[in-house]
Amino acid sequence: MADLAAAGFRAVICNRPDGEGPDQPVFEEIRQAAQAAGIEAAFLPVASGKVTDDQAGAFAGLIDRLPRPVLAYCRSGTRSATLWSLAEAARGRPLPEIIAAAKAAGYDMTGVARRIANGGRTPVDGTSLHHDVVIVGGGAAGIAAASSLKARKPDLDIAIIDPADIHYYQPGWTMVGGGVFDARTTARTMASLIPPGVTWIKAAVAAFEPDARAVILDGCRVITWRALVVAPGLKLDWTAIPGLAETLGRNGVTSNYRYDLAPYTWELVQGMKSGRAIFTQPPMPIKCAGAPQKAMYLSADHWRRQAVLSGIDINFCTAGAVLFGVKDYVPALMSYVERYGIHLRFQERLTRIDGPARTAWFTRTDAAGQTSTVERGFDMIHVVPPQCAPDFVKVSPLADADGWVDVDPSSLRHRQYDGVYGLGDVCNAPNAKTAAAARKQAPVVAHNLLRDLGLISGGDAVYDGYGSCPLTVERGRIVLAEFGYGGKLLPSFPNWLIDGRRPSHLAWLLKERMLPWMYWKAMLRGREWLAKPKPALPASAQ
């Protein structure tokens, strides 16, 4: 108790019943020692494994009443962590935050996830809904997977879980920021895109219970499944850069990574006649690794066409050490870097921004690993936020050590749990996180899932890591980067038609006219043009 007082604690809660172990001081001894040390002590005994709702309520009351900071303890700390978790849930704290905080302290609260999702109370309704296939996420990957499944088995019972009303064609936002597309053409209602015969559960996921083959929704509804497809995309962490969230959309601060901000990018580009323009790229992985450069090249091309480029200082500040991860495309990109007079700032990560002061701070890492801070003023800055898996995925049993859904990169099955599959931006396969990747992954997941359920025959389908990044280097020309695992080039067209290593007008027409149509009319409807899954090679041929 004296050590606790010296550490700054002002109160202690004992959650361990007297007499639980022979070497255990009883609470009266604890109370006296606490009083001598100037600490207030409270007794809320809880039997191991039997935390009740009333006890959780009493714990919350003690936390409110006692002077802080408070230390709660039992034998291992699990009962105290459980009481804290349930009390926090009753206050309205989101389940992923509670589980993440407990996990950081060394406690796994997934076993009481349903109670946490139910506001810290034991659910009284044990009923649940059941579907043969449950897909978490109604974005490009989730809807494409549902459509590919329906194309193979029209009578399959499928549910998509997603709370959003609007579905966005996010690859189009670069073109919005470049004045090519109208933002409204990139948005459609979710209801219009859910495949016929698929149930749409308009709710948010709170937790996964893969051992019970269950998904827990906010409000503690339970959905059980024979097969689970996890495709909720990733999280854009705007708050990870101090000052950014407060200034987005004004003070010259913009981002094509948000529907409402891409038009502001074009507004800034049109209005800029001189000054400094900064384009940032955070550490990988991010959604569409080429998008930060696309915004820069289209902006620079507009300034060139308006004959103001010479008066604009363009800086590309990237946390990476190279311009693009696949070296075959770098020469073409470097020719445009030189044409536009762009200053490349490698291994610089945006760490703070002051919009009204038009100032940004970067952390630079040198070859020896030493860091320093660089301050830069700006007239316009295009920011790409740090990105991570959604919170409810990061804290789940499905996640790897970095928070991504842990899948086999070839089959896209979960490495640990049978009947679970991942695709799209949320999985940890080492491919580029692009819509083109999801287009190729969806048929692979559909085939392997149905094969595992015994509904179709044949061997595994394999995903080769295909991703595509149409790099808009100028209005009317694109470097069409197509590659797979290990940077292997995987062109869709012969070189005489489109050589992806060189800027092409035909590739621009593909991006501007064909890809949106393919997205809405083919990918999201189960038409697997240029995306038929490949069978696994027999062992003798590998």
UniProtKB/TrEMBL annotation:
Rhodanese domain location: 68-111
UniProt cofactor(s): FAD
Residue ranges of the TM segments: none
Keywords from the named record: FAD, Flavoprotein, Oxidoreductase, Quinone, Transit peptide
GO MF annotation, one: quinone binding
GO biological process, one term: sulfide oxidation, using sulfide:quinone oxidoreductase
Name of the protein in question: Sulfide:quinone oxidoreductase
